[in-house]
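explain this:

___
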Amino acid sequence: MPGHTGDTMPTCNHCGAHVSERFARVFADENGDIHACISCSANAGIAEVARERARGT
């Protein structure tokens, strides 16, 4: 998973904030990239923002 190496916590590819393993399992795309998190997106829109950023829009 990009942004995730062994003993380190996964990180948001957009802002670099650390996210939990559980968050990464739920919101990472099919490549394991995390495009949005609670540090850079509104809680209610994380999934939508992540999809938009993954598409590059």
The longest helix spans residues 46-55. Helices lie at 21-27, 46-55.
